[in-house]
Amino acid sequence: MADTAIPFDDAVLVRQCLTGDLTAFEPLVVKYQDRIYNLCWRLCGDRLAAEDLTQEAFLKAFESLGQFRGLSGFYTWLYRIATNLAISYRRNERRQINTGMECRWEDMPSQAARLHRSIAGDTDQPGEACERNEVRHLVWQTIQELDDEQRAVVVLRDMEGLEYAEIAEVLAVPAGTVKSRLHRARMTIREKLLPVLGP
Amino acid sequence: MAGKPDRTELERLLSAYIDGACSDAERQVVEAALKGDASLKALHAELTRVVDCVRSIGEEPAPGHLRERIVSQMERRALLSDGPGRGNGSRTAGRLVMVASAAVLVMAAGVGWLAYSIHMSGRERAALLADKGQGRPVHEGLDLSGGKTGADGKPAGLHAVPQQALGTDGRAGQTGGPERVVEEKLAEAAVAEEPTAGPVATPDEAYRQATAEALVARQVAAREIEAAEAAAQRAAERVALAEAAARQAEAVRAAMRSAPTSEPVFEAEMRMARGDGSAAMGKSDTSAAQAVESGNLIAAPAAMAGRGGEPRRLLHHVPSVAMMSTVGEGHVGALEVRAITNPLDRPAVAADAQMAVREVGGRLVYLGFGARSSTILAVVPAEKRLLLAELVTRIGTVREVTLHELAADTMSLEIEAVLTEPAVLWYPDPWSANLFGHGPHVDTVGTIEQGRDVPIRIVIRDMNDNSGATTQP
Questions:
Q1: Contact list, B309 vs chain A (CB under 8 Å)
Q2: Left, alpha or beta for B167 (phi > 0: left; psi -120 to 50: alpha)?
Q3: Does B379 touch chain A (CB under 8 A)?
Q4: DSSP-assigned letter for residue A156
Q5: Which of A93, B14, B183, B448 is a plausible cystine mate for B424, CB 3.0–4.6 Å?
């Protein structure tokens, strides 16, 4: 991911932006675009929408930078914007969710790339890889079927790796609520996955 | 932990325990419970597997064009506003209007005050002078409309105005008209008479004071107007620049949007021979507007000139619309797609592509050859799973492509191509081989020297024939 390659301090870049140096925002885009894109994709379940949401999240952050107090990390603030946008999108659009297996043409290059990576891994037998993909598909589908609140905590915790306190900040809920939602979400996923979980 | 938690609470703690987010007390409770409760232990194992499964869903990088999209939008919005964190651009204009309005109000107040002071003091002074029998009323000596003076040429009796109120040249402002006449009269009076000092303000002193204050106020107003006008001028220049940039951007977008009807920008002709003997012809309706919306055309103009995978992306875009809308499962035939493209003179997308469509073993298989896209594509939708295989990634520039008739029961495709530059590199692609289960392989045959016209014939034989393909340079 690009975030390890960019040694700039977020706070410094934000300050530069606020003094009128617009170029300082671009490193922030480069640094966080992958994470925000993946976050949006996982929350909304649609790659094309995730692109739009990622763009909107960055633009919204750019325009609202003056309101960023620096009390939390820039990325936490950005996550919050992106999460709210993705949840709003999901609630408002009520689109048919592309679950990734019946993918569209636009998804094919990335799917092909994943397949390429998967096949290129010489330790995998094709059968095992296929089975693992089935499980992942089922997990993905189950996550997409969760309600917005549960999906958000699962994505933020298990896929994005945020701490409970950070999730609480992003979702603006108490940490106890995060714990409860996360447990309920995992129990729901477990129920769906029981046939394939194995020993 | 206060007291022993019930089963529900224990289960809830399991998730936090797995995440290492329990307090020490909670952790001890959970660990003790896990030792003595087999079902809880099983649940713990299952939840751990759930977490592992969720975490196993990988991530992928954001699309390559996304950063450019975001940055260009950001720059556009910044251009139309004051910069980051300052909302939209209308605030700038709003502030300027407020400044200008304030300046106008100050000026109007100043002029009004001046006129009122002159009028009122003139009446008082006329009365005073009449009492003393020293001459005509003052207002007769002040021709506010033409700058004429009284019969003696001097406004006798007018007292001095402090010099500092008039500026270094003795003038109060830059404007002409009645105010200027007033200034001249006052300046003359200042030269003719010295002000008389006294502990109590006489009507004359009050008159002089008011007049001086009015002039100062007018000077202040004039300076503010000048500053506001300069600011407005600068703002107008910025707005003009922004509008020019917006017009330019809109012109490009409009040209691309309107191109499908007025000028071919992204057009594709299709010919498809179906397995049942029928034929279909048509044009792709992949419009430039769609391309604009999808970002494919405008996202990376530099890349369109032939860098990286962008030309392939463009090529995908044309047949994807054609194929997906016109070819159904079970059809066997050939699809020829000829893209006639000229979006903003980008040569890389002036591509020919020929596609073969076959049903093999219950699967619908497309094989395509993009003349200038430098790509052979194989698209295999099987059980609704669309997989894309790129068999050859670099073949140089192809001048001519011929797609031969397909054999009835084998998956074979012959392509004749004339390569003009710069080199041809074929390499075996185990990924593609794995994808198809067996071949087709395109073996490495080395490179062809740059600049030579070398006809080559690629034969991709039966996909179930693992002997692979032959390539004959």
A1: 109
A2: left
A3: yes
A4: I
A5: B448
